[in-house]
Amino acid sequence: MSDDQLIFRPDDVDLTRSPLRRGIAEPTFVLGAFNPGMTRLPSGNLLLMVRVAEALSQPIDGDHVRAIRWEDGTYVLDRYPVDQVDMTDPRQFAIRGAAHRILALTSLSWLLPVELSPDGAKIVAVYYDKAIEPAASWQDYGVEDARISRIGDRWYMTTCSVSAERHSTTLHISDNGLDYRLAGIILDHQNKDMLFFEGLVDGRFMALTRPLGEVYFAYPSNSPFVGGPSINFATSPDSLHWKPLEAPGIRARKASTSAMKVGGGTPPILTDQGWLTLYHGVERRDAVGIYRSFWALFDAKDPTKILRIEDDAAILEADPSLTAPIAHQMYLPTPVVFSTGIVDQGDHYLVASGEADLACRMTRIAKERFR
C-alpha cells in the first residue's frame, strides 16, 4: 500500500443492509464512515470496526426537525419544532430554552466490522451480520467510536454509548476478534476516549480516560498548562470496575498549537521504549476546531510516568488530497484527523484514523519517527 490512503468511504456502505431498515422507511445517507477501531485477527488479517453515522436525507419535515432513535429493537423518528432548536451544527441540533445544553441527533451511529488484508491495503470482507447497534435504552442515540485492544487471548472494545439517560463508556468482549458481546457500562459519565492498554500492567488492566464536564478550573498563571479536558489514567482488576489514578496524565499545554483540548487516540501498545500512544489535540477554529494527532510515551512498568510527549509538531494532520475525490460529501468546515488504532508492522506502524469525520484513513509511519 502507499504510505497514506483512504480504505473505506461512505459509498462503501450498503444501506440496504443497515440495521435502521428495521423501522426507518425514509431515505437516509451515510454522513460518515470513520473513526475505526483496529486490531489484528488470528488469521493475520486486520479488522476495522467502522463507525457508520447514518443520517436522514431530509431531516426537516414541514415545520419540524426529526431525530432518529432506537426503541425496543426498532428505530423511530422524534419530531421537534424547528423554531425551538438550533441547527448550526450539521450533525445535531440543540433544544433552545432548556435548563441544560440538550442535544438531539439527525443521524444515528452503528459499528460495521470490515476485514482487511494483513498490510491494510485491501478490503477482504464486510460483516453486516456482525454489526454493533444499540441494544438498550442507554444507547438509544447510537454507538460510536470503537477502540480495540487485544489482551491475552481476548479482545476488549470500548465504545461511546449515547442516550437521553446517560453518555457512557461501554465494553464489548470477543474471543476471536470478530464476534463481540456487550458487557455493559463501565464508565457512567461522559467519556468518549477510554483506551485499554494492550497488555496488563502488574497484573491489572490499565486505561486512558478523558472525562468531560461543563466546568474546569484555572491553572496558576505561571503554569505551562491550559485548563480543560485532560487524558487521565485508571486501573481495574477485571476490565469492568475502574478506579481513577491520582497521577496527572496528558494535559493541554499553552505552547502547543493544539491547546484547545486533548483526548485519547490509539490504545497504548508496548514497544522497546515503553507504552506508545497517539492522541489528538485541537486548535480552536470555527465550531469544531482543527484536529491533529500527536504522540506520547509512558514507562513500561509504571505508565503514570510520562517519558515523552510530542505536542509541538503533529505526527498526523488532515490531508485534503485524500478526500478531494469525495469532497462533495464533506460537511465539516475545518480539517480533522482522529487516530483510533495502531498495529506493529515490523519496520513501521500502521495507523487507522478517521479523516474529516468522513472516511477511514490508513497511514504507514516509520518507527524512526518515534525516536
UniProtKB/TrEMBL annotation:
Native species: Sphingomonas pseudosanguinis
Database matches in InterPro entries: Glyco_hydro_beta-prop_sf (IPR023296), Mannoside_phosphorylase (IPR007184)
Entry keywords, A to Z: Glycosyltransferase, Hydrolase, Transferase
GO MF: glycosyltransferase activity; hydrolase activity
Domain of life from the UniProt record: Bacteria
Protein name stated in the entry: Putative GH43/DUF377 family glycosyl hydrolase
Family stated for the protein in its record: Belongs to the glycosyl hydrolase 130 family.
Entry-linked Pfam families: Glyco_hydro_130
